[in-house]
Every structure is written in structure tokens, then in C-alpha cells.
Amino acid sequence: MNLRQLEVFYAIMQTGTVSGAARSLHVSQPNVTRILAHTEQQLGFGLFERVKGRLVPTVEAKTLLPEAEKVYQQLGQFRSLTNKVKQGHQHLRIGAPPILATKLLTPMIAQMSHEQELSFELLTANRDELCSGLLKHELDIAIAFGDEAPPAILSETLLTKSLQVLVPFNTVEHLPADLTLDDLINYPLPIIGLDSRDPLGLLLHQSLIARDEHYHHPISVRGYSAAAELVKHQAGFAIVDPWTAEQYQNEDAVCVLPLQPEIPFSVSTLYAEHTPQSIVAKQFITALKGSC
């Protein structure tokens, strides 16, 4: 049974009539009748019996239906994919951690969607999930913290920033003007830990261990916003990216301070090594670099 025969078989199973199948397939009734007859001749058994104007599936047809449904579903997915490929120059799938998606990418997506006839998908995920999405061709590009990349992923530095410190407002007068990591380590209030599987969390961990190999975080979190919220409740200091810091700089209970010496970090664009970049992906990255 070839693809066209499968389509006719499935359409008749769904509609129960030749006329209904013809309408769903946008072909003539004689065409459907001819294909059905040829299919049954090739198979050597009947697929339908005519009962009171309707085509009733035979036992053999019912046996074939589950596998036919699987093939038909895959056909639908393939057609959807071909449509995406067809309009690929106008569609871009981008992934990023939540804070970068919100603060860095949404302004550029809004601008480009207004200026050009483009469509976007924006996925938020951690770095490991983003790399997996690139390798599975679920994403075209990703923006992430750090500059290291796993095999088959290419990384290009987009910008470099420095970590900033969120401190409870009532501690500001007790901290030196040139705040250092050692000052924070020696202060009675703890530094809130970030997940070391996260690039910024790993950077913070390495910076702390370089000064005090026995430093312990009484509280550790996965998200930067969670660390900032803990600062609001005077649970400790948080060392975070400048975009998270910007979100909290106007909070009455939080103060944002620079750190001396600075702890720099990078934000990178990630690509699947063996997937050529589309024109729109290159345009987006160029525009993003220009805005940073």
C-alpha cells in the first residue's frame, strides 16, 4: 500500500463514504473509487463492504487501522515540519535562561517582529536543557551564561558583565565602601549559594573556595530571583547577574552594590555545530550584539 492508497483508506475509515473521503482529500469520487479498487486488488482481500450506502470496514481493514493511524500521524508531523522548513527564513526558535530571556531577548524580539515579517518561539531553560534542545534541532540558537560548551555545540561570546551584590538595606552602613568578597565571607550574615551546576553558581563557588576552602552556604538556591528574595527577608547576601540586580535595585529592603575586585562572567550564543545558521538567525545575533 503506497502513501496515496493509505490516505484513501484512512479517509474512508474516518468518513464512512467515498464522497466524504473525496471531500476530505479534495479529489473526485471516481478517483477515490479507482484507488480503493486498485488497493484491494493489490492486497488480495476486501477492505470495505457496502451496507445501506455506507462502506463498512472488513475485519482485515480493522486489523490494519492501528498501524495506518501511526503512519498517518507521522505523515502529519512530516507535513508540519516541511511547512516550518518552507518558512524557516521567517521563523526563529530561541532558548535562554529566564532572566536573559526576559531582560536581554524580549526587547530585540519585539523590535524585529515589528520591523520584519518574522515569527519567534522563545523557550526558557537551563544551560544543559538548552544544549540538548540545540542537538535535537528543537532550537535554532540559544543564549546562556558562561563560555564553555559541550561536544557538538559551538559557543561565541556575546558580552561580558560583572556579578553584583544584593545586600539587606539594614547592613549597608556596616559594610565598607569598596566591598570585597572577603568582607562578605567575614560578615555574620551568610552568602546565599547558587547551584554549582549553573555557570554563575560554579563561578561563585570557585571564587569563594579560592578565599576560604571551607566556606559553607547555610542556604543554597537554584534560581537567581530566589536568592534575591531571600535578601529581602534578610537571610543573607546574594551575588547575582546585573539583570537580576536591576530588578531589585528599587526595593526598599535591598541595596545593590558593586564588588571589588570584579568577578566577570560572559554571556554566549550557542549553536549546534553541524546545523548551518539561517539568515534570520544571523540577523538576530548581529542585532543583539549591536544592542549590548
From TrEMBL:
Looking at the keywords, is Transcription present?
Answer: yes
Name the source's superkingdom: Bacteria
Q: What is this protein called?
A: LysR family transcriptional regulator
Give the originating organism. Answer: Vibrio chagasii
**Is this entry keyworded Transcription regulation?**
yes
Specify the HTH lysR-type domain's residue ranges.
Answer: 1-58
Which controlled-vocabulary keywords does the entry list? DNA-binding, Transcription, Transcription regulation
Please give the family membership noted in the entry. Belongs to the LysR transcriptional regulatory family.
**Example GO biological process:** positive regulation of gene expression
Q: One GO molecular function term? A: sequence-specific DNA binding
